[in-house]
Specification:
Elements: H1 3-16, H2 36-39, E1 51-60, E2 70-82, E3 89-101, E4 106-122, E5 125-139, E6 170-187, E7 190-199, E8 219-229, E9 234-245, E10 248-263, E11 270-282, E12 290-302, E13 305-314, E14 324-334
């Protein structure tokens, strides 16, 4: 079996598992493509360099949860190595994140390893297949919890028994993800991509009691987009990102518009400033899909470094309690080594 046949069969197998049962909801990012291993394991190694690092900080629900907003920190690093073919790449990566907030300090932690193979179908066309797995932990601080039985009419009395029984305050579980992505370079600064992934294949049980199961729903992630050169100094970077997890769905649609101050034709390194706008559509268990937020962002790229800032303006009925959330993203991509040949002309998120 040659490598093309193997990748075709493996991609069909991974996508064939996508209709698995979808049931709880992960965190989300507004600058999602700054979190490549969180979007699709197949994005591991798809970059204009040898090594990439990403860091995101997100703060939300601050106006509704004074002193205890949900703060999320994401970090990832991936590296591209030589593959079997002249333009192929074998890629490895590591992703971690921590999400914490609320009165009882509820938190979720993930640490995942990713492995992907970027198969060159042509000089500027790739089919990438990736897998990802690791451990997740969810827990809370029971000492900060207050229950109805502890209110005696005059107020909260912590000495009163809660009559609640918890088997654990923390759960560690294994998690597995897989995905595929097709990418094609159309020319200088122009390219398109299309991908899909599934997270939480095993739907782990994270219940803190022995009374019932509380499974993490499998999550379907679909993404497509492009980089389109609009002349010598302007680019448009439209993106489409869809998520479905359990009974929850989310769709982000929008675009960056980038102004390029300077570009090195040999290394593809750029100095550029971009502004972006997206609309996030979402539904809940009891409602149909509607506008959840309007997102505005700005980003500055200086050669290997990038820094992005975005803000979610809540547009749903939740705006009464929450005005929005801020997100900061930092990225670094090391230049490709001379002995490795040319870089992949990837989208500039």
């Amino acid at each position: 079996m040659n490598r093309y046949t193997f990748f075709t069969l493996a991609l069909l197998l991974s996508l064939g598992l996508l209709p698995a049962l979808l049931r709880a909801q992960d965190i989300h990012f507004s600058q999602q493509y700054a979190a490549p291993l969180f979007v699709n394991p197949a994005m591991t190694g798809l970059m204009q360099g040898d090594v990439r690092g990403s860091l995101i900080y997100r703060n939300q629900w601050a106006s509704a949860m004074t002193g205890t907003p949900f703060r999320t920190i994401y970090g990832s690093a991936d590296m591209a190595l030589s593959g079997l073919g002249d333009y192929d790449r074998l890629a490895i990566g590591l992703m971690i994140y921590n999400d914490k907030g609320g009165a009882v300090s509820f938190q979720t932690n993930y640490i995942d390893l990713a492995l992907a193979y970027n198969l060159a179908l042509a000089e500027r066309t790739y089919l990438s297949l990736g897998i990802e797995g690791g451990m997740s932990q969810r827990g809370f601080d029971l000492s900060k919890a207050q229950f109805g039985n502890q209110f005696d009419g005059s107020g909260y009395t912590p000495d009163l028994p809660s009559d609640e029984v918890f088997a654990a305050q923390s759960r560690w579980r294994a998690n597995v993800a897989a995905g595929g992505m097709f990418y094609m370079g159309l020319g200088v600064r122009s390219n398109i991509f299309l991908g899909g992934a599934m997270y939480h294949f095993t739907s782990p049980d994270i219940s803190f009691t022995d009374l019932e199961r509380d499974q993490v729903s499998s999550k379907l992630s679909l993404q497509t987009g492009a980089t389109l050169a609009l002349g010598e100094q302007f680019d448009a970077v439209p993106t489409f990102y869809y998520l479905k997890q359990g009974q929850h769905s989310q769709l982000n649609v929008g675009s960056w518009v980038r102004y390029i101050f300077d570009r090195n034709r040999h290394t593809s390194l750029e100095k550029a400033f971009g502004i972006g706008a997206w609309t996030r559509f979402a539904n809940s268990v009891a409602s149909s899909m509607g506008i959840d937020a309007v997102i505005l962002g700005a980003k500055f790229d200086y050669n290997n470094f990038g820094v992005g800032l975005s803000y979610d303006f809540t547009a749903s009925g939740l705006s009464v309690a929450n005005t929005g959330g801020v997100e900061i993203a930092l990225t670094y991509t090391a230049p490709i080594r001379e002995q490795r040949g040319r870089a992949i002309e990837c989208p500039k998120f």
